Each structure stands twice: as C-alpha cells, then as structure tokens.
Amino acid sequence: MSHSVLVTGGAGFIGSNFVHLLMRERPDWNVVNLDSLTYAGNLENLVALENNPRYRFVHGDIRRPADVARAFDACGKGEIRVVHFAAESHVDRSIESGLPFVETNVVGTQVLLDESRARKVARFVHVSTDEVYGSLGEQGFFTEDSPIQPNSPYSASKAASDMLVRAAVHTHDFPALITRCSNNYGPYQFPEKLIPLLIANASEDKSIPVYGDGMNVRDWLYVEDHCEAILAVLERGSAGEVYNIGGHNEYPNLAIVKRVLAELGKPDSLIRYVKDRPGHDRRYAIDAGKIERDLGWRPRHTFEVALPLTVRWYQSQHAWLQRVRNGAYREYYARQYGS
Ligand code: NAD
Ligand code: DAU
Questions:
Q1: pLDDT in tens, 204-242
Q2: Is residue 312 included in any domain, yes or no?
Q3: Tell me: the pLDDT tens digits for 95-143?
Q4: Considering the domain boundaries, does residue 230 fall inside one?
Q5: Residue 338 parent element (H or E)
Q6: In testing the pocket of ligand 1, which one of 6, 14, 188 has its CB within 8 Å of the most ligand atoms?
Q7: Catalytic residue among 35, 61, 88, 130, which?
Q8: 53-75 pLDDT, tens per residue?
C-alpha cells in the first residue's frame, strides 16, 4: 500500500527544504504539500518537483476544514503521516499584529488536528520552536522539561498550539509528537529573518539593522540538519514525546553580523544600531541530549562550512531574492525600519 506524508507549509523556508529531503531520501513515499501561499510561501522553491508524480501541491488554508479535507483526499488510500510546519513565523510581525498568529497557529492547528484524527493518521509531527520556553540568562539550556513561558505573540501562539497537540494526545490517544528547534539558517529563508536580511542588505551596501546592543544570543542550526531531525522523529520518535533540536552553536547577533560581513568582504560600518525589539528574548540555547540519545540524531553541518554555503547560495540567487522582496515586503520593511 502507498505511504503518504501530508506536509503543511511546504512552500515556506523549512517546509520546502523538508519536501526536498523527503523526495530525495524516501523514494517510496508520496508527498502532498498543503500551503495557502502567504507572503512567506513560494512555489518557486519547489519548481524542480512540479512534474514528479510522487509530489502534489494543494493550494489551501489550514484554517479551513474543507481545504484540509481536500489535502487528505489527495493523499489517497494508504497510511498517512502529517508533518505540520504551516505557521505565521516572524516575531516582529506578531508584535505589529497578533491576530493572524492566533488564527493560523492556534485555530489552524486545531482544524488540522481534528481532520487528522478523523482520518486516523498514523503519526502527526507538530513543528514547534524553542521560543515557547521564553528566555535564558547567561547560563543553562532549554530541556524538554523547561517551563513554557512564551514572551511574544508569536511564541505564545506556538505554545498554545503545542498545548492543543498535547491535549489531543492525552484526551484522544492521538499519535502526535512535538519538536522544538532553535534558529534555522540556509537556502529559501524569507529575507525578513536576520541572516538572509543581512546578506541581502550587505550585498547591496545597505545598512544592517541590529536591535538593541546586538548581544542577544541565538543557537543556530543549518536547515538541512533540522529537516533530518524531523524525519528521525517522524520515523523513530515515540508518540506523545517532545524532542528539542539544536546545534550547540550559540552566537550573539553582532558576531553573526560581523561574520557574514567578513564573508561578503563588506565593512562593519554598514552596521546600524536600531531600537530594540519590544520584549526581546535575551538568549536561547538548546539541550538536544534527548534526540541525540534516543534517536541517534546529530547535526552534520558545522557553522564554519554551512554559513559560507548559505552566503554563496543567496549570492547566486539574486533573481529569487528580488522576486520575494515584492511590494508587500517593501511596505513591511518601511514600517519596521522606517526607511
Ligand atoms: P515560513 O514563514 O518560511 O513558512 C511558513 C509557510 O506556511 C509558508 O509557506 C506559508 O505560506 C504557510 N502558511 C502560513 N499560513 C498558512 C495557512 N493558514 N494555511 C496554510 N499554509 C500557511 O516559516 P518557517 O521559518 O519555514 O517555519 C516553519 C515552521 O517551523 C513554523 O511552524 C515555525 O514556527 C517553526 N520553526 C521555525 C524556525 C526558524 O528558525 N525559522 C525554528 C523553529 C521552528
Ligand atoms: O528560535 C526559533 C525561532 O527563530 C523561530 O521559532 C522563528 O520562527 C524564527 O523567526 C526565529 O525567531 P528569531 O526572532 O530569533 O529570529 P530573527 O531572525 O527574527 O531574529 C534573530 C535575532 O536577530 C533576534 O535576536 C533579533 C535580531 N534581529 C533580527 C532582525 C530581523 C536584529 O537584530 N535585526 C533584525 O533586523
């Protein structure tokens, strides 16, 4: 019998990398991608798969039960597993307006859970974030047992969706698993996020907006490593469990900015300190011991190799960058940074 994976948000940054990984590494599986194509969804990321009979794109919204049902219908009769990426994902946008985050991340997740239960899916991987744990001081790491203390409307909406998944497991014995990953970087990331934004701006000798003192710390993971971790959880994780995913790769933002500028041969004088992000979490750092021990996953890419790879990718994708930075993004950029 055929085996299908329904991926939500597969036209976004991590989702499209994951769809490519599945198509490459699991040649017996069919993949259905349900995506509503918000500003962050881009089918260009998947153009190489357009004529592949194992891949189907369904244009639809996870908030609409009829759209979700159509995506399940496209999966056919065999066993179905769900990997749920679709979300509003940018913290600054959630500060500007929280409602779309509640609608997609909370309501959309419940709609997807209900239909997934009705279809008796074999597994449901909910892709969450380390931001649900809040912020760390100078020491320590987030474990799966850290308290849930989200600080932004984005992370609060993700935490709410995690709780709905947990409730489905507890109440309905639903076979869901939750992953919580740190900051990703790599190909196809929308240039509102720090690393692609700074590569795009610096390449054009535009200033690099650094929030506050630039000393907020993030734990960076190459997107392919994250996708491999999700596949390990999908195939070998225990239902009902939470798995943290991270690369033990912490840097203050300023160090990232200077490193990318050096990689591009651009001067530090492009750095512009701007008003801090309201409620800006100071430090994230993941203890990924559980997924390493239980599932044997480890990141394969070091920062030394994957950051230059990422810079080269964006340099070679000038046309892609131009196309995703359309009118709507330019308006958002002007509101956010005042120019
Ligand atoms: P992204 O913003 O690049 O992509 C989100 C995708 O979801 C887009 O293709 C968009 O069109 C789609 N989408 C949005 N609303 C939808 C809706 N209502 N119905 C259907 N599709 C919809 O996001 P990303 O950075 O790839 O993140 C993917 C997931 O991973 C998110 O759930 C995010 O919370 C989580 N995550 C991201 C990171 C990171 O560093 N980017 C780290 C940890 C976890
Ligand atoms: O930790 C996982 C999370 O990582 C994901 O859940 C989110 O979806 C993803 O967007 C990301 O959230 P961050 O807020 O950490 O990522 P962002 O790229 O927006 O910012 C990274 C750091 O850089 C953060 O400390 C804010 C800072 N920053 C960001 C931008 C866009 C700047 O200093 N200047 C900027 O212009």
A1: 999 999 999 999 999 999 999 999 999 999 999 999 999
A2: no
A3: 999 999 999 999 999 999 999 999 999 999 999 999 999 999 999 999 9
A4: yes
A5: none
A6: 14
A7: 130
A8: 999 999 999 999 999 999 999 99
Domain at 66, CATH number: 3.40.50.720
The pTM (predicted TM-score) of the whole model is 0.98
Which domain, by its residues, includes 164? 3-184+223-246+283-301+330-337
Question: In which residue are the tokens 């046309």 written?
Answer: 319
Which residues contact ligand 1 via a Cβ below 6 A?
8-9, 11-15, 35-38, 40-41, 61-63, 85-89, 104, 108, 127, 129, 158, 181, 183-184, 190
In a domain, 95, yes or no: yes
> Which ligand 2 atom minimizes the distance to the CA of 198?
36
1 confidence band (pLDDT: 50, 70, 90): low
Residue 28, φ and ψ in degrees, nearest 5: -95, -5
Question: In Å, how far are 164, 297, 316 from 309, measured between CA atoms?
Answer: 37, 22, 11
Q: What is the DSSP letter of 237?
A: P
- Residue 145 maps to a domain: yes
Q: At 112, give phi and psi (nearest 5°).
A: -65, -40
Ligand 1 mean position to 31 CA, how many Å?
17
Residue identifier of the C-alpha nearest atom 23 of ligand 2 = 194
Q: What is the tally of structural domains in the chain? A: 1
